[in-house]
Amino acid sequence: MSAAQPEYLRPGHAACAGCGLATGMKLVLQAMGPRTIVVIVPSCEGSIGGVFPHTAYGRTTFHSAFEIAAPTAAGISNALKIQGKDDIQVLAFAGDGGTFDIGLQALSGVAKNNDDIVYVCLDNEAYMNTGIQVSSATPSYAWTWTTPKGNSSRKKNIMEIMAAHYNPYSATAAIGFPRDLQRKIEKAKSIRGTKFIHMLVPCPTGWKTPSDIAPELSILAVETNIFPLYEIENGKKYTLNHESRCLPVQDYLEKQGRFKHLTEEQIRQIQSDIDEDWARLKRKF
């Protein structure tokens, strides 16, 4: 994107230092461009914008209820089309809690109807805005305040859930690969129907990491096959976007305080789970 492009997430926002979510939102908003209406929900992205009547968002922004980002965006999109305004994109931002958990039914309904929106899940792998509680996006054995000894469940496979809806386009993205991320947003804009972007956004506060390594962590997540970069079109066509280096998962885990309690056996189990998931996914490319 051009260095001269306007800032759609302006300086002075309320994100924590080094917030991967704020970086991800900025990249997405740049790629979406000026003809965009944004839906946000009560979550980190709701707090980041600032306190009414002031906002750091440089686009028309609608603050929806927590669980209905997708149908709110769909309603706006359909209203625009009734008015003949087909050149305005509608973008929904929601976190993993509002996507994997509380908003899943609403998102499913929108995907089933194939309403014309771009939906971006800002996945920081817990309910960060309300105190770092476990979500169904939280990885195995990860610390949260509600799983102080480590999460006992595996992370939900949201991409396969979306593929089961046969929506026209779904993709994973990471802030450490900004060109790939923005290319996928541009592609999503060119497609009519429900487009879903699952974006990993490291959280220094919830992940117990330094404030300057969020991009590095997202790169390691990709290079260890914890978070592969790929696209799914119409629920059938899978395309790999980056050949990982298949680094050991320990390279990723050891940089995060939320995993400092892991035993060697637990690390081996995580590696085994990731290897199994990666082998299953590779067969689809």
Any overview of this molecule?
An eight-stranded mixed sheet has the order 2-1-3-4-6-5-7-8, with helices on both faces. It has a single domain, classed as Thiamin diphosphate (ThDP)-binding fold, Pyr/PP domains (Rossmann fold). The longest helix is centred in the C-terminal third of the chain and has 19 residues, at 264-282. Helices cover 36% and strands 15% of the residues. Helix 1 (20-32) packs across helix 7 (178-189) and helix 3 packs parallel to helix 5 (104-113). The mean pLDDT is 95. The protein contains eleven helices and eight strands. It has helices at residues 20-32, 44-48, 69-82, 96-101, 104-113, 158-163, 178-189, 204-207, 214-223, 250-253, 264-282; strands at residues 36-40, 60-63, 89-95, 117-123, 169-174, 194-200, 230-233, 237-240.
Q: Keywords for this structure?
A:
11 helices; eight-stranded mixed β-sheet; alpha/beta; 36% helix; 15% strand; Rossmann fold; 8 strands; 285 residues; single chain
For the biggest sheet, the summary is: 8 strands, mixed
Helix content: 25-40%
User: What is the chain-wise order of helices and strands?
Assistant: HEHEHEHHEHEHEHHEEHH
Amount of beta strand: 15-25%
Radius of gyration: 18 Å
**CATH domain class name:** Alpha Beta
Spatially, the strands of the biggest sheet line up as 2-1-3-4-6-5-7-8
Mean pLDDT comes to 95
